[in-house]
Design brief:
It is a multi-pass membrane protein. With 260 residues, this protein is mainly alpha-helical. It has eleven helices and two strands.
Length: 260
């Protein structure tokens, strides 16, 4: 518990400074480093030696992350999603034995590259505050879910994947995360609708991000993705909700901008 508190005391101010004050170049470089470390953790979950194939996927992941972070124009977005479709189609022609680890590595690369949408989210009006709001909302939702689940959780959310999570805890997490997110939005003078969208979307889809990583860790019989952050586990453990949350928050805000 002490390690967890100390890590939080160090990391939270660092995140706040990075999101609100740091030059965009350093924000991008920080995201690039985080994505590289997160994907390294993903590759390490299967306990196989770090061979040429893993090195190749890590290199490709870093290159794609770099392109997506520093040259994120419209054609790059189209290229990114076209690559997703083409790789999935390509893997379908491989044998089951060959496809498993290739598909696992590829999905992991996509999973961590989605972190890059945090930088894209900063492009909206008051985008830096929106990104910080997303973090605050997710962290608050996690706390509400944990304490409400322990206090009066009765119905399991997904017994096979994450036995300790309950439906009651998940509902409280969403409601609490949205409440704190909107309050934070008022404090930060963020558009109230944008604040609600980010808080609601991030807490709802964040549940699936959390469960997705739980599936992977349970499959490989791992409790934590690494021990990089004392008391917290690894980057994947800390950002298990962030990947889906920031991606779908960005998509919904972008749709809102285009429609209204």
């Amino acid at each position: 518990m002490i390690k967890r508190i100390v890590s939080s005391v160090i990391l939270i101010p660092l995140v706040v400074y990075l999101v609100l004050k740091a030059d965009l170049l350093y924000v991008r470089l920080s995201f690039l480093l985080i994505e590289a470390l997160a994907f390294s953790e993903w590759l390490g979950l299967d306990s196989r030696p770090f061979d040429f194939k893993k090195s190749l996927y890590l290199s490709l992941s870093i290159i794609l992350s770099f392109v997506f972070l520093f040259y994120s124009m419209y054609f790059v977005d189209v290229l990114f999603f076209a690559l997703v479709v083409s790789m999935i189609v390509g893997f379908s022609s491989l044998s089951k034995k060959e496809v498993f680890y290739d598909y696992y590595y590829f999905v992991g690369a996509l999973y961590v590259i989605l972190y890059s949408f945090g930088v894209k989210l900063m492009g909206f009006n008051n985008g830096r505050w929106l990104l910080l709001l997303l973090f605050v909302s997710i962290w608050s939702g996690d706390s509400f879910a944990y304490f409400c689940g322990r206090g009066f959780g009765r119905h399991k959310l997904s017994p096979l994947i994450s036995p300790k999570k309950t439906i009651e805890g998940a509902v409280c997490g969403v409601l609490g995360g949205v409440f704190i997110g909107v309050l934070f939005g008022l404090f930060a003078k963020v558009n109230i609708l944008d604040a609600f969208i980010v808080a609601f979307v991030s807490n709802v889809v964040g549940i699936f991000g959390d469960l997705s990583e739980s599936v992977v860790k349970r499959f490989f019989s791992k409790k934590d993705s690494s021990h990089l952050i004392p008391g917290h586990g690894g980057i994947l453990d800390r950002l298990d909700s962030f990947s889906f949350a920031v991606f779908f928050s960005y998509l919904v805000l972008e749709c809102k901008t285009l429609l209204f």
